[in-house]
Amino acid sequence: MRMNDPDEAIDWQGCAISCDVCAERAIPDLKCEPLHACVHDRYAKRVDRFFRWNPQIAKDYLQHGYFEVRACAVRYADIFHLPALMNDPDETVRWAVAQRLPQRYLLRMIHDPHREVRIRVATRLGDRNLSAMMHDADYYVRLEVVRRLPKGLLPLMMHDADVEVRRVVAKRIGVDALVKMLQDDDPGVRLDAIERVPVSVLSMLVGDADWRIRYEVAARGSREAAIRLLADADYEVRRCAAERLGKDEALSRQRWPGEGGIWPE
Q1: What is residue 264's DSSP assignment?
Q2: What is the pLDDT of residues 167-215, one digit of tens each?
Q3: What CA–CA distance (Å, rounded) separates 47 from 64?
Q4: Cα 53 to the chain's mean position, in Å?
Q5: pTM, full prediction
Q6: What is the 3-state secondary structure (H, E, C) of 7-42?
């Protein structure tokens, strides 16, 4: 027997479902259908469809023993009943709660033990409260925070321990603070930063350890920086600098090892 076989009407405790003894059939105007919409079925889609058809009774199932029933009921019950489930023992239920809670309650869930719940909170929390999650232990929670954090607070996260978080910071932070990120240990962060910094500061990266950074300096930096990069260890950087200056001027400034003016590969 497969756990979620759509051809079987099995409840969450593994017993066969019988419509003849179902107590829900006595509820006025109830809509249900075996193998399609049933609150007793362990197949979550059928449970969700049951509450979609009968949202008026969803609140009566928020304390049900099966977590899928509680999670589905949360999606349709009125929000006044949701705060009681913020500490539900199952993270699936708490995740569903976090999707719908009003802002005044959402702050209480920023320290939820499960990362998926905190991620959901971070995507919904108001801008002025996001700073409360800047130091979350999970990098993906911080990633969601930094994507939405007001720009004035981004400098507080430009030294985050995770590279992906810092890269998002580099793409959003103000230009004044962005210059400081040109010294980041990760070349990917520096590459994101260099795309947005003023041309006037590119020369400071002429000796960067990553050839891609030096290539950007050769392409967009000062003429003096391009001249210095004619002798760079990387061929692509040298070629870019030469094209920037013009081949004749480049040849007059730097003797290349190729014969007959042939540029070395």
Answers
A1: P
A2: 999 999 999 899 999 999 999 999 999 999 998 899 999 999 999 999 9
A3: 12
A4: 33
A5: 0.81
A6: CCCEECCCCECCHHHCHHHHCCCCCCECCCECCCEC
